[in-house]
Amino acid sequence: MGKRNSQRKNAAMLDTDDDNASVSSSSSVRSDRMSVSGTEEIQVDKESKLDQALDALFEKRGSTREKALAAITEAFNSDLQHQFIEKKFATLLHQCLTCIKKGSSKEIALASRVIGLLALTVGCGDNAHEILEESITPISQALKSSPDSVKVVSLLECLAIITFVGGNDPEQTERSMQIIWQMLHPKLGSNVVAFRPSPAVIAAVVSAWAFLLTTMDGWTLNPKDWQESLAYFSTLLDKEDRSIRIAAGEALALIFETGSLEKFAGAAKGPTAGSGQEGNKSRDGSTHLQGLKAKILNQVRDLSSEAGGKGSAKKDLNNQRNLFKDVLEFLEDGYTPEVSLKIAGDLVRTSSWSNLIQLNFLKHFLGGGFVKHMQENEFLHDVFGFTPKRSTQGVDPQVSGAEKRMFRSPNSVLNKARTQFLNKQRMLSEGRNAGHYAVGTGDEET
């Protein structure tokens, strides 16, 4: 099985397509040309255009604001606008939040993207935390207003990004996870507009939720909030939409990696009578969990070898097969997929489901700006322990990216780095015994 894993180290789990691959190389060429031929006048011209776009966010006409938001997004994708943010951070954030509160669905989607890019650009610190605290209420209210899929997906992705960057403690992260989860499971009295979520929204909810779970220690989660989520993800594996199945598969792999299955499983329903009630409940819960694990293992095995149906895109089918082959190998043998992604000649490597899900999510969110940000965004360098060759000058070789990240922010970043470290240590300590995660094991951490 290990050999099969190594043969698929570069499997299409990164949601990478041919267009994105070509963008990677062409973007790096364009950025190099700009760095060589760029002048102070060009920089001033860029800032002037950004200033104009920011001014346009005060205009009454919605279409004018939409064009301005699109221009700001393009500017943040093509370059890291640190000087502009230093001068106009508060104004830009306030105007984007106004767009979310009062704008059309399209305007809300655009503003959400700008806020997410703003958070990724400023990195961890007071500004990122301010973005989260100022944005969470407007985003929550906008999610309840209408079922427009494009708007809802953009808001969910924005909330996940700003929490990932700006969350200072597990409670803040779990608060956002609950808001995201309520899109599919609204609580009584939450005033969520009742509507049937589209496949795009379901996939976005699962992906955003799993993205934030990567920053959490499994044992810090409140089990009351996530019981039966394991069974829910299992039902999603049977959905017709392939994007839903893939998102659910990644989420399930991550849950198994946390080693806290019982927090996500819940006990078998129904009262237990007679003496020894607690012992019966424990046995019922264990039986319920074992049955659920067996079901998931069978589903994963089927999806790893699914035949193409009518109208099935071959590439999408291959992505699904590759993902579920990796999930199957992880559940059966404990091997996590090792993935390498080339960024302008440098390699970003992941060796856990947690890091892989983070890489997938951020790559998807940044789109055409992914290469530029991976090359120059220090926050992303620290998240993935990635140091581009062109950025090594002046860096103390004795200090790792993870160490720099922890020193720079003793709160949220330390927690996230610690989580990733503990996940890896748990995997090492539990060993790579054959069948460790397969059915029949009943000793997961709680």
Automatic annotation (TrEMBL):
<dbReference type="InterPro" id="IPR006921">
    <property type="entry name" value="Interferon-rel_develop_reg_C"/>
</dbReference>
<dbReference type="Pfam" id="PF05004">
    <property type="entry name" value="IFRD"/>
</dbReference>
<protein>
    <recommendedName>
        <fullName>Interferon-related developmental regulator N-terminal domain-containing protein</fullName>
    </recommendedName>
</protein>
<dbReference type="InterPro" id="IPR016024">
    <property type="entry name" value="ARM-type_fold"/>
</dbReference>
<dbReference type="InterPro" id="IPR011989">
    <property type="entry name" value="ARM-like"/>
</dbReference>
<feature type="region of interest" description="Disordered">
    <location>
        <begin position="267"/>
        <end position="286"/>
    </location>
</feature>
<comment type="similarity">
    <text>Belongs to the IFRD family.</text>
</comment>
<feature type="domain" description="Interferon-related developmental regulator N-terminal">
    <location>
        <begin position="25"/>
        <end position="332"/>
    </location>
</feature>
<dbReference type="InterPro" id="IPR007701">
    <property type="entry name" value="Interferon-rel_develop_reg_N"/>
</dbReference>
<feature type="region of interest" description="Disordered">
    <location>
        <begin position="1"/>
        <end position="43"/>
    </location>
</feature>
<feature type="compositionally biased region" description="Low complexity">
    <location>
        <begin position="22"/>
        <end position="37"/>
    </location>
</feature>
<dbReference type="Pfam" id="PF04836">
    <property type="entry name" value="IFRD_C"/>
</dbReference>
<dbReference type="InterPro" id="IPR039777">
    <property type="entry name" value="IFRD"/>
</dbReference>
<feature type="domain" description="Interferon-related developmental regulator C-terminal">
    <location>
        <begin position="377"/>
        <end position="429"/>
    </location>
</feature>
